[in-house]
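Request: Have a read of the protein record below and say how the chain folds.
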Amino acid sequence: MAATPDRIAAAARRPIEAVVLGASAGGFEALLAVLDGLPAAYPLPLVAVLHLPDHHESRLAELFGYRLALEVREARDKEPLAPGTLYFAPPGYHLSIEADHSFSLSCEERVNHARPSIDVLFASAGDAYGKFLAGILLTGANFDGAAGMAGMQVAGALTIVQDPASAAVATMPEAALRRMTPDLVLSLAEIRALLRQLGQPQ
């Protein structure tokens, strides 16, 4: 839907308890753009899947930790989500969020040719948090994330897709827009501004 000021303001007032993000090609820069400036005391946990080759040592937590005020680390099996922390899915593992708001890692078959899969994270997060979840799908060169975002929307989550016109690779956001109508279609700057407002006292 059109990202009118009223719609963005209404989204910012929603009672959100966690944020999940998915990206592929061009996603490193896009994630940095939307997360830059979030304070160390940010009140929500953020969980991201960024596609990487299997069996490739990931330095995402290290690289983002240098650039952000947030605590940044790879998610660990059975670990509870904590505010002010950015978690990345480890390469080669699907990352799910359980009903008790802890992580689960698995080596099950690829979904949309990906492991970790954005769809897996999004679907499980929607089940775990329902209307208290915000999901953000960014740039990418495949269709991963579209089905998961549609499922999150059914669960009542706030759904946000990067404007394809602003994406390094538009395939992923366009796939989501063909499948469903998200709450908001925003530029990276607008997503960054919204994230700064989510979880703040009204």
Helices lie at 5-12, 27-35, 60-67, 118-129, 146-154, 171-179, 188-197. The beta strands are 18-23, 46-50, 71-74, 85-88, 94-97, 103-106, 133-137, 158-162, 184-186.
